[in-house]
Amino acid sequence: MARAFVRSVVLWTLVAYLAIALFEAIVFGRLEPTRYVPGAVGAGLGITAADRLSPLRFSRS
């Protein structure tokens, strides 16, 4: 249980970090790697908590 939770937090934190960094690089033309860490960690925790409440499910049609 704890291992799956930690894995989910790490995965979502990485996704959030890359999304923020790419957005900054493309839109504003700057990349400050350490600046995005707090926001990415918060987003990773938030998305993980939200996924526990309402899991993401993809239907195959």
Helix segment tally: 2
| Low-pLDDT runs | none
* First-to-last CA distance: 30 Å
Radius of gyration: 14 Å
Q: Structural class, from helix and strand content? A: mainly alpha
Name the helicity range.
over 70%
Helices and strands, with pairings:
Elements (H helix, E strand, L loop, with lengths): L1 H27 L8 H17 L8
Helix pairs in contact: 1-2
Can you tag this structure with a few keywords?
61 residues, 0% strand, globular
Describe the structure.
The structure is a single chain. This protein has 61 residues and is mainly α. It has one domain (8-51). It has two helices and no strands. It has helices at 2-28, 37-53. It starts with a helix and ends in an 8-residue tail after the last helix.
Give a short summary of the structure.
The chain is mostly helical and 61 residues long.
